[in-house]
Structure formats: structure tokens, C-alpha cells
Task: structure prediction
Amino acid sequence: MQKQIVIVGLNHRTAPIDVRESVAFENSYVAEALTRLHGYPSILEGVILSTCNRVEVIGAAAEESSALSEIASFLAAQKAQRHAAALDEHIYTYRGADAVRHLFRVAASLDSMVVGEPQILGQLKQYYDAAQRAGTVGAVLHRLFHRSFSVAKRVRSETGIGSGAVSVSSVAVDLAKRIFDRFDDKTVMLIGAGKMGDLMARHLQSVGIQTLMVTNRTFERALTVAEKIQGNPIRFEDFVRYLAMCDLVIGCAGVPEVLIDAATVEKVLRERKHKTMLFLDIGDRRNFDPLINDLDNVYLYNIDDLKSVADENLQERASEAEKAEEIVREEAQSFVRWLASLEQVPTITALRQRFEEIRQREIEKSLGGNLKDLSAEQRVAVQEMTTAMVNKMLHGPISQLRKNSVNEDEDGTLYVAALRKLFNLEKP
Amino acid sequence: MTLPMDALLIELTAAVYLIAAGSLFLYLFRGNVASRLPAALLLAGFAVHSVALSRLFVSQGFAAVALMGDALLFNSWLMVGIYLLIHLKYRLTVLGGIIAPLAFLMTFAAVAVNHGATEVPPGFQTFWLPLHVTLAFLGNAVFALAFGVSLIYLLQERHLKHKKLTLVMKRFPPLESLDRLNYKLLMWGFPLMTLGILTGSLWAGIHWGDYWSWDPRQISSAIVWLLYGTLLHGRITAGLRGKKAALLTMVGFCVVLGYFLWGDAIFPSRHGGRFE
Result:
């Protein structure tokens, strides 16, 4: 008996968000769902993965096609609790080598909406742990998931898939990190109350910015935003006076008007002894004079600059993804080879061979050494005795393996896996 | 330097520094694989370098640093040593990539340019000469590092101004750290250089009879001293920092290095390496 790996699921490409949501598993409910999944006759091992971009059931089964239809009806039952529309058109299925490759691609973030985003690996680990706690993981999925974690690590370290910021805010943070080496002593001024500015301010807070000033033409608006992001509201008429204190200035006023020109910045710079400043003009309309970028120790990036860096990084990721696919292919192949080796018969042969080798070696050593004076008959007797010993020792394990294979007991693979490891039969 | 064994050791040192310089490319483009390689190679080179230098001092005495080739050997040893110390604190692998080729050139040249006198005349072997040489060379070494830091600063600055946020440049330290380190190096280098000039002048007074003889070396040192002095003053009082400070630091070091390597050939001087 050899277990087959099957995957049934839907993701951001095959299903719209409302369909994905309708089958998503809430955290509190996963353990119960796992038990229910395990109850299906063909499913010997199972893990559920449920994130905002995908819902997948990964199973190890004795028989592929019945397992696939069982998982499909398991998912449909999940959906039935809320809606009744057909799931079939959104669902994909993978089996055998394809299933292995799919899981490795998911873990390595090759199947993600933003290729290379790192969260998926953590989510995968979390759902694997849940399945382990629920007792629905056996030797095969155990090995499969651990393999997928290390494939993800390998992809991350051998390719540039995870490097390079791909959103405007993260590009801005990356940029700030190339200019400043610490943020706890820096001050940010946010001009205008556009949504993007708000988001950027939060992003900067997450890297350690502690002092934020907020200004807006309507002071009430500045007050609201300031309260939301724990900043200090500044009256619009006064903001220029505070600029000298600011290391980062974010413009997001949404009006086509130059709020800060180069001459002002020159004055501000003298006042702050030319300490470096970063201006981010991220509203729909330009608020900062482009000439600001020509001043020494000042950097001005507008929304298009940030976007084009993000796009470049995205392209870079796509080309790195090709290298990653190669790694995944290679790893999937080696996993499939391991899975095939779990068959009982070859394991029994290998085990016998291993013991026989040891016996032969030791006999040769003894008969050539301490026992070299033995007569021919005595030599035969020693041979017979050692052979009998090996056979007696192997009798228990081998008959147990045979029994498992007949009963299709799910522990069978576990024993085979353990034996291969204990007696170093992994690489024939 | 006359023993073949010593020449071999120095050539080995130069070779290791060259490999270290090459490993920087590996670091920049395959950082995960070779992140510690450049610094490790520099450390290995430094170890061989130390052996070569101590053999030299044992056989010829410390005053041998007044000879051109040995001077290069000693100066580059100080530079790599200080770099390794800085690296311990700041993890500036990229700087190692500038120091390594420089160290290679200096050690390589040490074998090649050992012309002129091969022994220090007995009259020169006083307490003042080694002191002067050590202080001046420490200053040189610190400014060599400041040169490297400035070069990295300018590269990073240029990329940021042109809005190129490449992954390779991510391995370069942030501008703020580079500028701060540059300032610290200037704070160390300037007093060392000042003391180097003072002790040199004292020595000249004792041996040549005049403290200041408008020797080309003295003039060039004075120019560099004024330049670094202005830079330090500007940094402290006027907020002279960033790109301009980096450029000035580089200019200063180029004068030092240029004079060190070719000055004697263009403007004959009775200083350094030749004792005609």
C-alpha cells in the first residue's frame, strides 16, 4: 500500500472573493473540520489551509479518485452552510507529483497573488500545526510539509524572489532606510489628509518613527488625522516654521498647488545645518517643487517614482520566480522518489539485504581472525547459527510489515518510514 | 625585504587581498552565499601581512619603515587593521571591497618599488623617526578609510538622487551611517596627521637643522592639513556634511596618495625612502 497525495482547493485566480469567503474555515472551527475530514473513508491524513487568497485541503489517501470526490463534497458541505451555488467551476485538483509540486509552489510563494510575499509560509506552518494537534497528520504529510518548509527557505535564500519592495509604502520605507539608519529620533510632517499619506505615516511608525506632525488647510481635519495616527496637529499657516524639525515630509494634499518650493527648503536646510531631508510627494497632484531634488542632502520622490521602483521590483521577482520553479521541480521529484520507496516489498528486501551484509562482514572478520582455527564443519555451524539469528530477529518486524500491507492499516507507512530511517535504507 | 622568504610572504599577502577584492563581487550579487567572505579573506590576508611585517622588523629594526617599500607595507597593514576594527562594530563589508584593492596595490607595490636605499643610514635611527612615521601613517590609514567611506557615500547618494533603488545598493549602508562614520574618521585622522607633521618637523629640526624647509613633502602635507582642517571646522560649525564633505575627503586623500606614490619622482625631496 502506498499513500497518494491529493489536493483540492480554490484560490484568488480560480474563485472570486465571495466564493472563497463562503468556503473559508474560521480559526476556531478548523480543529472540528479536520476531524470531520478525517472521518471520510479514503482520507488517511489531512491538512486544511485557509487564507484570504486560498482555501485548500491537502490529503494523503489510499485511493486517489475517491479521495478527490470526498474532499470536493467536504468543501461543498462547508459551503452549503451559507450559499448553494456550484463550487465545481472554481475548484482545482492535483494528485501525485503534481500535488507535491503545487504545495511546494504555494509554500515558496510562487502561487501567491503578490509573488514572493512571505506571509504564506507562516500561514502554512500554522495550519500544519493545527492539523498535527488534531491528530490528522501522519508520516507522509509530516514529511511533505516539512519538506515544503525547507523548499520555501531554499527558494528564499537562493533566489531574489522575496527581495525588493513591491508596494508604494514599502518602497518608501525601503528608500528611507537607505537614507536614515535609525528612526526613533526622526520627525515626520504629514501635509494634507489624503488616504495615501495616512497609510504612509502608519508604515513609517512601524519602523520606529515616534514624532509625527499633521497639518491641513482645515484644521479640524488635521485634528482628526492627528488623533488617528497619534500625531501633533499643526495649523496650516504655521507648518513652514516647523519644517526645520522634520526629517521626512509627506505631501498628500490632493490639490494641484505647490505647497513647498525649493527656496523654502534651502532656508530650512540652513536652519537645520543641512541635515538630510526626504520629501515624499504622494498625492494625486504634485505638492512639492521638483527642483527640491537638486539641493544637496535633500531627496524628493513623487508617487510615480515610487511606483516605478515597485514595478521594477515586481518584474525582477517574476524573473527570479523562474529560478524558483526549477528548485521546486527538483525538490518535488526527490519527494516523489521518497514516497515511492515507502512500498513494503522493496523495504523488506532492503532490510534483509542490510542484515545479511552485516552478517557476512562480521563472519569474514571472525573466521579470518580469532576463529581461524575452526574446522570446516565448525565453520558451517557458525554460518548456520548466524543466519538463524538474523532470521529470528527480522521475523517480527517483517511479518508486522506484511500484516499492515494486507490490512491497509494506516500505520504501515509510518513503520516503513521509520525502518528506512533507523536502518539507513534511505538511499539504496 | 632582501630575503626571498619575506618577498614570498608579501606576494602571498597581496594575492589574498586581490582575492578578497574579487569576493566583493560575489558578495554584491550573491550576498546570501558570500556575506562573510570578503571580511574573512581580508582577515586572512592581514594575518599573513602581520607575519611578513614582524619578520621585517625583527631583521631590520622598526626604522626600516622609513624605506619606501616597507613604508607601503606598514601603511597598508595599519589600514587593513583599522578596517577590521571598524568592521567589528559597523559590519561594513562594502568598505572592505574598497580597502581590499587598495591594500592589494600597496602590498604589490611594496615588492616592486623598493628602490633607493635598502638600509636606513645610522644617523636616522632615532626615537623621533619611528614615532613620526607611525603617527603619519596612522593618519594616512584613517584617511584611506575615510576615502572609502566617502566613495560609498557618493555612490549611494547618486543612486538615490537618480531614483534608482537597486537591490545591489541595498547592501550599501544608509547615508546617515556613512556620513557619521566619515565624521568620526576625520575626528581621529586629523589629530593623528597634526601630530605626524609636528613630530616630523621636530625630527627635521634635530637632523637637518631647520624645522620647516619648504620641502615638497612638507608643502603637500600642509595643503592636505589645511584642507582637512577646513573640512573639520566646516563640519563642526557650518553643517558641512554629506556630498560636499565626502568629495573634500576624497580630494584630500588623493593628494596624500598621489604624493606618496609619485611625489618624490616629480618634486625631488629629501623626505621619505631616499637618503641620497
